[in-house]
Amino acid sequence: MKYKGNPWSAAEPGNRLYDNFSKGWEEWLAKHPDTEINEGPDGTPKCGAIIQNVTISALKRLILKMTHPNPVKRIQVQDVVNDRWVKQIECCVLENEAACDGGIDASARKSCRLASKSLVKKLHNHLPPVKVKAVYDFDLGDGY
């Protein structure tokens, strides 16, 4: 997500970025076999530039918990959703079409601070598309 794509082309030995990631985990787990990822000075593995370039330490810890090589120790989806870093993410919600003109300007002052810096379309809505009568010679079920 941070890099808007996969951090490596293949998660297999021989891929330089994946090898750096794996080596960081191997070295950390050798010293901390039963330790959970934590906020301490040696609380996370050094998994190459991909992880080290994540400057928000809470996000870095979360990513590492999600990518733990041991599936038993990997964080579960419900724990990700309940993570304090994830809970602080601002999200826009459009309750109904009457709430506004059909969209939310995510770059507005009262919206997410980071949205104004993103490359995504800033005016959007979360409502399903309006049903339009089909112009076909056959019926698609309920005429739409």
Automatic annotation (TrEMBL):
InterPro entries: Kinase-like_dom_sf. SUPFAM superfamilies: Protein kinase-like (PK-like). This is Uncharacterized protein.
